[in-house]
Specification:
alpha+beta, 4-stranded antiparallel β-sheet, 4 strands
Length: 170
């Protein structure tokens, strides 16, 4: 119990950038990060803000002609409304899917787990970052709280949820 409390205190005390950077990349790192969102005693708003991309992240994820628009839309809509990622009561398990832009474009791998909007914008994503979609579920269930656009970029985790909406906004 004491170790858990010390760990929770450590998480709460970490600044937003240092917490997201403390996690490793890849599926193991994504699961490590997302396990924190299952904890009902965590400040979910503060934890979500650790995933807020900065200008360099936008430039690294989106191609030259798209990053400014995406940043403008996300910053004016999503991040000003205090996006909160959290598991609901009883959702103690995580379902996780990963896909690259090439897989999303071709419809291969785990792409059936991703919203179709990703196919529309794969040409506006720079390189081949692995994009994660995740769902918090109750044990034995498949429906739950779903999120997408989690990416490990520039040495830390960020989230670009539903990027096709940001890129297609007027």
């Amino acid at each position: 119990m004491k170790i858990v409390l010390v760990f929770l205190a450590l998480i709460v005390s970490l600044s937003s950038s240092s917490f997201a950077t403390a996690m490793q990349s890849g599926e193991k790192g994504a699961k490590q990060l997302l396990n924190n969102f299952i904890n009902p005693n965590i400040d979910h708003l503060k934890l979500t803000k650790t995933l807020h991309p900065n200008k360099i992240d936008y430039k690294a994820f989106f191609i030259e002609k798209s990053w400014e628009k995406a940043m403008k839309v996300y910053e004016e809509t999503l991040w000003t409304k205090d996006l909160v990622i959290e598991a609901k009561e009883g959702q103690t398990e995580i379902l996780l899917w990963a896909a690259t832009p090439a897989e999303l474009k071709a419809g291969t791998g785990n792409t059936k787990a991703f919203p179709g909007g990703y196919r529309e914008i794969t040409d506006q994503i720079k390189g081949e970052p692995t994009i994660y979609r995740f769902k918090f579920v109750k044990p034995g269930e498949t429906s739950g709280s779903t999120y997408d656009g989690l990416v490990y970029i520039n040495g830390h985790w960020v989230i670009f949820p539903k990027p096709w909406k940001a890129l297609n906004a007027k």
